[in-house]
Amino acid sequence: MADARTDEFIEYVQGGGPVEVDDWMPEQYRARAIKFIEMHGNSELMGVLPEREWILRAPTLQRKLALTAKVQDEVGHAQLIYRVVEDLGKPREESLRDLVSGKAKFHNVFHYETRTWGDVGVIAWLVDAAAIISQKALLKCSYAPYARIMKKICWEESFHILHGRDVILALVTGTDEQRELVQEAVNRWWGPLMQFHGTKIPPEDDPMVFWRIKSQGNEEARQQFLEGYVPQIWELGLTVPDPELRRRDDGVWEYTEPDWDELMSVVTGHGPRSAARLALRRRFLEQEGWVREAVLAA
Amino acid sequence: MTTVFEVFRQERKGQAFAHAGSVVAPTVEFAEAWAREQYGRRGESEALWLVPRDAVHPVTDWADEFDLKYRRVDGYSIKARLKEARERAGGTSAGAR
To answer: Is the reported ipTM for this assembly greater than 0.85?
Structure first.
């Protein structure tokens, strides 16, 4: 990493400079960018599965259509993102192969089961909220083609979050059983949500921040999530299953240390639904291979 | 055989087309179908341009051997001279004229 060209590049990106597809970049930067952006693409693609499981069981036609539209959006995001990864040098087929073989990772929250319609609401509301906080920060990513497509992605996500709040509001203004569905789902998802933004690695030690692929540290993102959403949870009369959770006078949120072992185990493919969801993805990849072949032969 | 098509998007009539992203497709017909889905299905675009990446001729080097900045606003720094001119005029304030 000691050559002058690399030093100049580091100074450039740390100073806010954007990198374009044909620009020279150090191999470490390219590798980091591919890994990070590819994981985002994988998460979009795997992230539709928890919701897909509820399309047939959605309570109304309107909810079914909204959920379907959301799934289409997320798959579209995956396509845009894999396109960016492809330009960085890793073909889409290779990304997909690494995904279904379990070599590549995707976000922890997509490894869990979607037990009830309450879970669908909490995913669309709080999981999407946590994701949008990271995505908004990525608008400043040093790799400019990625930052540009994040604009479109954030725009579509704003509809998703509203859809999620609407689902939750319908449930909490319904019967006691419906309200209970939401509370149980919040209880189930709180652990994974607190793990979502990652360990408390200081930004200055985070290689993704070093290359300004990420512009925000993990803890900063989690604090932003707590600040924005805990009051929203409380105002609906719901509780958060953490007795330590409180906002200090200086505005910092205190909470019980998230279970980092669980995070590590889940993202390495040992979550409750990891194997089943990867198997489904693998089956479709094989089953639809002929479509790709036919299109490419056109 | 696939081609990368750069997608340019016009948000409203009369606005400039701006680069939005790219699609990869075997033919322009497939590229159009995918670009419509990716960049226009919510009515967010007035029009799209699809351009094969190979057709884009980039120009990025801007030689300025003769220091031609006298043709631009940043070629003129009048602050110091203006201050001097005002002082020579006798320090009369604008309001006192």
So the answer is: no
